[in-house]
Specification:
single chain; 3 helices; 81 residues; 2 strands; mainly alpha
Amino acid sequence: MQRLSPKGIRRMGIKERAAARRAKMVVHRAANFEEAEAWDLDFWQRQSPEQRLSAFVAIRRDVDKVMKGRLSNEQAARKGR
């Protein structure tokens, strides 16, 4: 579902963001932890600062939504006691 922010900027819902991330997803299968760590470091070093910040912000927003959902569920469970 596409929405516009108060400033008229297009915003995506969580399902749209997830689909967009899957479409851009880069994966690697490592033989061990050290190889995975080296690949991960190389991947992020190839990204621009803007790309790294964008990824961080998107993840942070998703974490915030999960935490709000958990809080709502906990509050609902307390009311149902």
